[in-house]
Amino acid sequence: MATFTFELVSPERLLFSGEVESVVVPSSEGEMTVMAGHAPVMAVLKPGVVAVSEGKGAVRRLFVRGGFADVGPDGLTILAEVALPMEELDAETLAQHVRDAEEDVADAKSDEARQAAAERLSQLTELRDALVH
Q1: 33, 13, 26, 24: which is closest to 84 by C-alpha?
Q2: Of 45, 55, 57, 79, which sits most exposed with the smallest number of CB within 10 A?
Q3: Whole-prediction pTM value?
Q4: CA dihedral (35, 70, 17, 49) positive or negative
Q5: If residue 10 lies in a helix (H) or strand (E), which one and from where to where?
Q6: Domain 4-87 bears CATH identifier 3.30.470.20
Q7: Domain range summary for the chain, segments of one domain joined by +
Q8: What is the pLDDT of residues 64-95, one digit of tens each?
């Protein structure tokens, strides 16, 4: 299977850089699978799991919260506000993300900001519920 270059970067560190077969991206428009030769696109990320297929059945899973995915001729780059390998994401870490989102809803100064924060909260709650079950 053809490969392409993928990088996932957060403010703290470079979490992944290498050749991959496919990447499932949790975009605000829905999940999208990027493969070699994908059409150029830029997407806003929602909280969720990026699944990276490195080939030979190996799949690496990384949690992301906020940011952008940019597919271009050189491959896929994800710039995430928060990103962690799934093995570093425990119930308490996720609970803290939910509490932060709840505070964002309470502190929102406009209806638009409140709606965006409520949507993030809903997505994080969904993710938490999916990981627990």
Answers
A1: 13
A2: 57
A3: 0.76
A4: negative
A5: none
A6: no
A7: 4-87, 90-132
A8: 888 999 999 989 999 999 888 888 777 788 88
